[in-house]
Amino acid sequence: MADLPTLTTGRLVLRALARSDAEAMHHFFSDEEAMTWWSDGPHKTLQETADYVKVNASGERYLTWAITEDGGEALGWIAVIPGRDGVAEIGYNLRRSHWRRGLVGEALSEIIRHCFEERGLRRLTADTDPDNAGSNALLEKLGFQREGYLREEWTTHIGIRDSIIWALLKREWEAR
């Protein structure tokens, strides 16, 4: 597993995602409404979620933090997907029972700070569905700028979808 520090905010503890988080993460991955804007459809079994969490918790492909209230049960996660030198993409999810509380924004703010200040990144990107109003509003609120609109970019469980590309530069974050 990648060496991930535990990060804290006013309400949250962000810790390395673990394989043992599969059951808690199944709340998100089996929820049809929560999975609407995900690239794959809802998971039908806990084993499907366990396999997915195993890959994301390994640290081999992504840096993935579990979003928790106290360091315990994972309510969701934030993944940082390395790209070119100094650049990474972020992705996130949160169980639906915890939506609209500002938790993802709080967690993302800390991950953004960590990426720019401690990991030396200069640019973070995100890729969202144009109809995902919640994520698009959140990214804009955090200072991300819409840089592109890719037509028919993804084939998902809800059909062929367009994609909005968002980016935030370190210097923009520091100027806030």
UniProtKB/TrEMBL annotation:
The keyword Acyltransferase does not apply. Residues 12-171 form the N-acetyltransferase domain. It comes from the Bacteria. It holds the Pfam family Acetyltransf_3. Gene3D superfamilies: 3.40.630.30. Keywords: Transferase. PROSITE patterns: GNAT. One of its GO terms (molecular function) is acyltransferase activity, transferring groups other than amino-acyl groups. The keyword Transferase applies. This is GNAT family N-acetyltransferase. It comes from Parasphingopyxis marina.
